[in-house]
Structure to design on (465 residues):
C-alpha cells in the first residue's frame, strides 16, 4: 500500500489524484501504524516548519517517519516534506526531523524584481542521476511555490538544481529517500512521470 | 529563472463555459471540463475558473466542475467568483483548487484576505481586481478606480491604494483586470498593469483585452506582468495555447516550452 502522510499541512488530494492518474490507489493517513506498515510513503506538505513539526509530533508521525526511513521503505518528500526532513529550518528557527543532514534557508535576493515566494515554472537540471529523474530532459520545467530552499550538507545528495538568482537544490536523494522542492503533482506530464517512477521504485539509489 | 505564465480563464455559468464582453451579454461556448483538458494537453501553465453565477444554490456546480477537472488536469487550478468566507475557500480547495481568488467580498470586508491567507496560505490567495480608468483626481491619485459586482458598481477606492492594502493583508498574487479593455481585443491596459506591478512584490497577472499574440508580448515585457490571462483568444479557436507560447518564445520571452 502507498500512503500519503496527513499532518494538517495542506491539501493532499492533489497528490492522491496524481497517484490515481498513474494507476496507484494511495491512502491518506495520519496513523503512524499505517505509515510503518506501508510499502511506500509520500510525505508532502505546505505551510510553516514550526506548526508542521508540532503536528507531526502530536500524532507520533515524526518517529514513524524515522522508522520507515531506516527500514528502507521508499519515501518521497514533496515541498515542506523535503524541508522538514533536514536538521534545521530558518523558518520559525525550527529544529526538524534530521533524516538528511543539512538546513533550510530563506531566499535572500538582491534583485528587487525577483519575488519571494519563488512561484511558477522553472527549469530543473539533473546534476546527479537518480531513477526518479530518469525521464527528465534538459529544459523540462516543474511547478514551484516556496520561500525557503534546502541546503543539504552532502553535495552528493543533490540530484537536481534550479536557478533563482543562483542555483539551489530542488531534488535530493539519499538511499531510499527522495524529495523534491517542486510539486510533481502540479507539474503536468513530466511531474506525473516522476510520481510514476516513484510508485515503481524499489528504493535503491542506482 | 521563472518562466512567464500563460493562464486561460474559463468563466463558468451553470456548468457551461461562458465568455463575456465588457462584463455583459455572456454567451455559452462549451463544456468547461473538455476545454480545460484540451488546454492542459496543449501546454497551458495554469487555469482559472470564474464562477459567474455564484448564487448560493448553484455553488455545487462549480465544485463539481473543479472536481472533474482536478482529476485530469495536473497544473495549478485557481477558482474565484462568490468567495465570501474561509469556508467557501476551503470547499473549493477540497474540490481540487490550488488557489482561491477573492474580489468583491474582499473589497466589502478586507479582512477576508487575511483570514484566507491564514487558513490556506498566503501563496494561495489571489486578489482579483476589476479596475476602470477614471483619470487622476484627489480621491484617485493613480487615476484608476476599483469596481465590483462584475464591473457594475464603482467603489470610490483608488486602485493602487487597494493593491497595496491587499498585499499588506496577505494576498499572494494579484489579477489586474481592466474593465475598459475587457473583451475589446485591443490589448491589455499596459500602463495600469505596469503601475501595479512596480508597486508590489507579489506576482501580477494581467487580464482583459488580449486580441493578438503581440498583446501578450507587450504586457509581459512593457507591462511587467508575470503572467498573461487569456479567454476569447483561445476559446473560439482563433489561437491555440501552444501557438501563443511559441510566438512568445520566438520573441524571446521565457516560456515553458516542453510539456
Amino acid at each position: 500500500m502507498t500512503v500519503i502522510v496527513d499532518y494538517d499541512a495542506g491539501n493532499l488530494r492533489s497528490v492522491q489524484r496524481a497517484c490515481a492518474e498513474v494507476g496507484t490507489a494511495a491512502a491518506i493517513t495520519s496513523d503512524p501504524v499505517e505509515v510503518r506498515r506501508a510499502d511506500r510513503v509520500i510525505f508532502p506538505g505546505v505551510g510553516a516548519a514550526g506548526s508542521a513539526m508540532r503536528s507531526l509530533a502530536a500524532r507520533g508521525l515524526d518517529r514513524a517517519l524515522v522508522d520507515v526511513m531506516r527500514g528502507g521503505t521508499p519515501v518521497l518528500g514533496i515541498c515542506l516534506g523535503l524541508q522538514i526532513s533536514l536538521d534545521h529550518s530558518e523558518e520559525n528557527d525550527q529544529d526538524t526531523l534530521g533524516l538528511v543532514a543539512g538546513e533550510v534557508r530563506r531566499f535572500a535576493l538582491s534583485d528587487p524584481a525577483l519575488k519571494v515566494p519563488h512561484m511558477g515554472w522553472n527549469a530543473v537540471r539533473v546534476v546527479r542521476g537518480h531513477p526518479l529523474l530518469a525521464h527528465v530532459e534538459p529544459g523540462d520545467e516543474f511547478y514551484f511555490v516556496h520561500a525557503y530552499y534546502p541546503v543539504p550538507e552532502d553535495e552528493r545528495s543533490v540530484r537536481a538544481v534550479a536557478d533563482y538568482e543562483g542555483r539551489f537544490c530542488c531534488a535530493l536523494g539519499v538511499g531510499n529517500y527522495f524529495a523534491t522542492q517542486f510539486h510533481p503533482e502540479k507539474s503536468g506530464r513530466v511531474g506525473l512521470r516522476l510520481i510514476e517512477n516513484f510508485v515503481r521504485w524499489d528504493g535503491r539509489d542506482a | 529563472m521563472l518562466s512567464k505564465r500563460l493562464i486561460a480563464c474559463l468563466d463558468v455559468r451553470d456548468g457551461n463555459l461562458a465568455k463575456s464582453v465588457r462584463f455583459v451579454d455572456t454567451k455559452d461556448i462549451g463544456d468547461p471540463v473538455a476545454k480545460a483538458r484540451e488546454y492542459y494537453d496543449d501546454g497551458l501553465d495554469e487555469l482559472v475558473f470564474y464562477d459567474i453565477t455564484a448564487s448560493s444554490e448553484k455553488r455545487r456546480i462549480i465544485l463539481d466542475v473543479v472536481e472533474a477537472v482536478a482529476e485530469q488536469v495536473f497544473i495549478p487550478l485557481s477558482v474565484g467568483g462568490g468567495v465570501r468566507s474561509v469556508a467557501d475557500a476551503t470547499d473549493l480547495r477540497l474540490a481540487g483548487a490550488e488557489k482561491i481568488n477573492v474580489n468583491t467580498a474582499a473589497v466589502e470586508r478586507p479582512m477576508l484576505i487575511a483570514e484566507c491567507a491564514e487558513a490556506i496560505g498566503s501563496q494561495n490567495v489571489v486578489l482579483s481586481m476589476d479596475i476602470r480608468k477614471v483619470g487622476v483626481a484627489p480621491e484617485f491619485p493613480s487615476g484608476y478606480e476599483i469596481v465590483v459586482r462584475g464591473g457594475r458598481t464603482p467603489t470610490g477606492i483608488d486602485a493602487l491604494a487597494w493593491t497595496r492594502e491587499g498585499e499588506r493583508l496577505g494576498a499572494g498574487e494579484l489579477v489586474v483586470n481592466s474593465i475598459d479593455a475587457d473583451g475589446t481585443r485591443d490589448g491589455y491596459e499596459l500602463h495600469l498593469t505596469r503601475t501595479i506591478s512596480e508597486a508590489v512584490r507579489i506576482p501580477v497577472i494581467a487580464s482583459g483585452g488580449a486580441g493578438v499574440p503581440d498583446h501578450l508580448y507587450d504586457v509581459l515585457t512593457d507591462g511587467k506582468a508575470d503572467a498573461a490571462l487569456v479567454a476569447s483568444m483561445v476559446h473560439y479557436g482563433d489561437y491555440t495555447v501552444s501557438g501563443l507560447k511559441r510566438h512568445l518564445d520566438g520573441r524571446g520571452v521565457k516560456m515553458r516550452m516542453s510539456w
Chain A has six helices and 14 strands. Chain A touches chain B at residues 10-11, 13-14, 17-18, 20-21, 46-47, 112, 115-123, 137, 139-141, 143, 145, 163-164, 185-192 (CB under 8 Å).
